[in-house]
Amino acid sequence: MSEESTSFEQAFHHSAERHERVWIFMALVMLALLTVCAMFYVVYDYGVVVKGAGSIRDPDSVMDTPAFRDGQLVQTGPDSYAVHVVGHIWQWTPGVIHVKQGSEVTFYVTSSDVLHGFEVQGTTINLTAVPGAVGKVTYTFSHAGTYHVICNEYCGIEHHSMIGSIVVDPKDAS
Ligand SMILES: [Cu+2]
User: Fold this and answer.
1) Per residue in 116-148, pLDDT tens?
2) Which is deepest, 17, 76, 98, 162, by most CB within 10 Å?
3) 115 C-alpha to center of ligand 1: Å?
């Protein structure tokens, strides 16, 4: 009787171990799957995404893109304009942008080297110029005057000299 119970216990333990092994195996598989999913998430979904962004595969070739190379203000509507801006050590291209008062300007901003911060003082324009990504911000210049463009992301020894300007000409001036 006691032998029987022993063998029963052994059999029970055996099957319990087998079930445990199955569960351990399943847990490991799920852990591996979760790890792979997390890696995919980080790579494909958690990358730097700038709103309204496009992307540039090779930041070194930014200046080969006509819109960024020319850096011209392009009229897109009666009072709306677009301009492509590149941050590079240590200047903004274009350095000076002229617009008329009341203009709505859409800035497409990127960097050809390191991170820069595109900030236009006296406005709400403030976005990071990321190599490989194109940030987009739209702003209406209701007041005439000169707005300084600064870099607010430390980018090297001459960071402080990275200053551009946006000149907003009064509406009634031709
Ligand atoms: Cu900087």
Assistant:
1) 999 999 999 999 998 888 888 999 999 999 999
2) 162
3) 8
Q: Residue 2 belongs to what domain range?
A: 1-47
Rounded to the nearest angstrom, the distance between the alpha carbon of 19 and the centre of ligand 1 is: 60
Q: Which of 23-27, 54-58, 119-123 has the lowest mean pLDDT?
A: 54-58
Same domain membership, residue 60 and residue 35: no
Is the residue at 150 inside a domain?
Answer: yes
Same domain, 31 and 99: no
141: CA distance to ligand 1 center in Å? 24
Number of domains in the chain: 2
**For residue 52, what are the contacts with CB-CB under 8 A and spacing of at least 6?**
135, 136, 137
- Whole-number pLDDT of residue 105: 95
**Measured in angstroms, how far is the CA atom of residue 136 from the centroid of ligand 1?**
19
- Does a structural domain hold residue 174? no
CA–CA dist 14, 124 (Å, integer) = 69
- Angle (nearest 5°) at CA 63 between 147 and 54: 75
Looking at per-residue confidence, does 30 or 44 come out higher? 30
Calculate how far, in angstroms, residue 159's C-alpha sits from the geometric centre of ligand 1: 4
